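Researcher: Predict the fold of DUF3152 domain-containing protein.
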Amino acid sequence: MRTHWLAITAGVLGSGALALALVIGGGSGAGAQAGPAGTAQQQSGSWSTAESPSPGSRDAADPVPTTTSAPPRKAAKKKVTKQPAKVKIPASGPGTFVQAEVDGPKVGQRGARLLRYDVKVEKNLPYDADEIARQIQETLSDPRSWTGGGDWRLELVSDSDRADFTIYLATPGTVDRYCWPLRTFGRLSCQAGSRVMLNGWRWAHGAEAYGKDVSGYRQYLVNHEVGHRLGHGHVGCPGKGKRAPVMMQQTKGVGACRANPWPDPKRSG
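Model: Structure tokens for DUF3152 domain-containing protein follow.
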């Protein structure tokens, strides 16, 4: 997942006392790349409350990731080996990324709108880019995810030129830079236009609402941020004891709700 500058457009909403609701939210090879600017949407955290995306926008300059290729591409595997929950995550990184060389099938109902995505992992993170891509692809291919509802088809590709958006797994410092002017405080993730930025610290440690279930939190994080890319805004807890909606900011807590990583947890294949 190269080193240039580009302008990203970020929409910022008010939430809580400060009224800040954030709509924070792809190329292979060694050349430069620029991701499209767009409305930004902030992930859940302990610093803001859930709100809908804002139609307003602001311009911010940030570096475009430099990408290097992983080993030759191969088809995505259905079986995923989980990454260890406890690993050391650097506070910041070089802003250069390894492109996952993994392709997957089109997932979702025929006739639904198709979006292609690729995956990149910052070089100094202790994760294999291809393995991360398989984990993300497994989550988004689950019938309980966005592809099961009939509105969307998603396809994992290894060619960034074919991707409609890119999912980056990055260090906290890099996420903070690429999500600016939206503030992610080293602990939040974001979506901005064609970029979905996943915070590596959260990927490793999860969130309080998920306890020791780091795998479940990762599913939530992917579904939540990709949900922003698909146009969904933040929502609140629907009632005591009910499942938290996936677009609730569960990283900062679920209140009276129960943690839930899926858009439609009752749906099955």
